[in-house]
Amino acid sequence: MPDRAPQPVDRTLPTEEARDLIALVREIVQREIAPRAAEEEEAGHFPRELFSLLSESGLLGLPYDSEYGGGDQPYEVYLQVLEELAAARLTVGLGVSVHSLSCHALANYGTKEQRGEYLAAMLGGGLLGAYCLSEPSSGSDAASLRTKAERDGDDWVVTGTKAWITHGGVADFYTVLARSGGEGARGISAFLVPGDAEGLSAAAPEKKMGMKGSPTAQLHFDGVRVPDARRIGDEGQGFAIALSALDSGRLGIAACAIGVAQAALDESLDYATGRRQFGRPIADFQGLRFMLADMATKVEAGRALYLAAARLRDRGLPFSKEAAMAKLFCTDTAMQVATDAVQILGGYGYTADFPVERLMREAKVLQIVEGTNQIQRMVIARHLAGPESR
Fold it and tell me: How far, in Å, CA of 199 to CA of 156, rounded?
C-alpha cells in the first residue's frame, strides 16, 4: 500500500567515526532486528543472541573508556545509537540502555583493580547486565529499600527481593543496591553480583502489556555471599551512585522514546500517503496533515532536548534537571505520537497486522520506568524552586 519508504533521520554527528557507527547500526537493524521484531515480540522471545552480536560489534560499551573495552563515544552519539535501535525494536534499544546503566557504577566508582578485573568483560565480552534498585515496596521512594547486606568477615551476605528488574533471570551480572547500614539514603551500598551466585534466583517473568520480549522479573537474594572486593564505592555511598546512574539512564530512556515516536511517525506517513479515500491519499486532508505536522514537530523537539542534555553531560556540566526534562518530554511525546498513529491508521491501527499498536503499548512503559513522569516533575521543580517545605 505505501508509496514512500521511511527516510533515515538526518543526524548531525560530531565525527566521521560517529557517522560510520550509525551506518553500522542501521545495517544491523535492517539485517538482524527489524525483520523479526514483530514476530519475536508477539512470541515473547528474548533475543539473547542479538545482544552477543551487539557486544561483538562494540555497541554495548559505547560511552565508556576504551582502556577497558569501551567505545570512547560521547553521550550525544551513544544516545542516537539507542534511538536507532529502539525505533526498530524497543526490547533491544532499552536493553542496551539498561546494560549501560548496569556498568555505570563500576566504570565511574570502582577501583582501578575492580575495573581491570571485571569491566572489559562487561563492556565487550559478551556479557549482559541488569540494574537492581526497585523493590516490591520501594519504587519511587528508592531510599526506603529493605534488601540487606550484612558484613560477615571478608564477605557481605545479601538477603531480600528486588522487583521490576529488566533482564532479571537472564543477566550475567547485577549491579545491586542494598542496605548495609542504618535507615535512609546514607545506609545503602552498591555491589556487583554475578548472575550465577549461589542463593540468587529469579521469579517467573512479569506478564506485561508491551515489551513482551524483554524479561522483567523479581530477583530473590537468599543469603547471597558477595566478597567485599565486589563492593563498589564506599560503604553508604550506594544511593549517591544510584542517583548518578539514573541521571544518565534517563537520557537513555528519552532517546529510546524518540526512537519509538519516530517509528510511529514513519508508519503514519507510509499509511497516510498510500491509503486513498474519496479519490485521493488521506494525507491530502488537512485534519491528517496537521496531525502529522504536530507529530513531527514533537519528535524533533524531543530529539533536540535529549541531545542538549547529552552535550552538557559530555562537557562535564550539571545535567540532572535537563535529564529529567528530556525523560519527561520525550516519553510523553512517544505516547502521544503512538496514540495519534493508531488514530491515523483507523481500524488497521488497532490490529497486530500493523506495528503501531505495538508501539503504543511500548510507549506507555517509558513514562513509568527509571522514575515515573510524576517523579520527573518533582525533580525539575526542586531545581527550579528548591526542596518542598516540610
Answer: 13
